[in-house]
Design brief:
The chain is 77% helix and 0% strand. With 145 residues, it is mainly α. Helix 1 packs parallel to helix 4, helix 3 packs parallel to helix 5 and helix 4 crosses helix 5.
């Protein structure tokens, strides 16, 4: 009976983590869309709809054709034990979504893409989940570089 409860709990955590990943993708898109399309629209080289479609298509195709170097780098910076992976990723995504919403609401010009907000968010989540003073990766895990 305990195993069933653990599986149900893990499923709920996984669903929350996936929902947070979707929320991060949406808030990141809202936050960074203006940076991606501003020049095209300002120079009248494309209408806003054309610029959004171009950005959407190439944001989807980029990792497929050019690889996922940023994701691989982030994966190498922060190493999380398997027993807390879902919790740490969920907490990191929650922090990244909160960062996106706060900076968007206050109109702060910041970077919010996964390469910039994910490493510090994951590092903080890992540190809090383990009670450790630091995580694997040292200072670079905090800088996002």
């Amino acid at each position: 009976m305990t195993a069933d409860l653990i599986v149900q709990s893990m499923d709920a955590q996984l669903v929350v983590a996936v929902l947070l990943a979707i929320a991060f993708a949406v808030t990141n898109g809202i936050h960074d869309a203006s940076n991606a399309i501003a020049t095209l629209v300002a120079t009248r080289a494309a209408t806003p709809l054309q610029a959004i479609l171009l950005a959407s298509v190439f944001n989807l195709l980029g990792p497929l054709f050019l690889g996922a170097a940023v994701a691989d780098t982030v994966g190498g910076i922060v190493t999380v034990p398997p027993d807390v992976t879902v919790e740490v990723i969920g907490a990191g995504l929650a922090a990244a979504v909160a960062w996106n919403l706060v900076t968007w609401r206050r109109a702060l010009g910041t970077r919010s893409s996964a390469g910039w907000s994910a490493p510090p968010s994951l590092r903080a989540a890992y540190t809090r989940s383990t009670g450790a003073g630091s995580s694997t990766g040292g200072p670079s895990a905090c800088s996002g570089s």
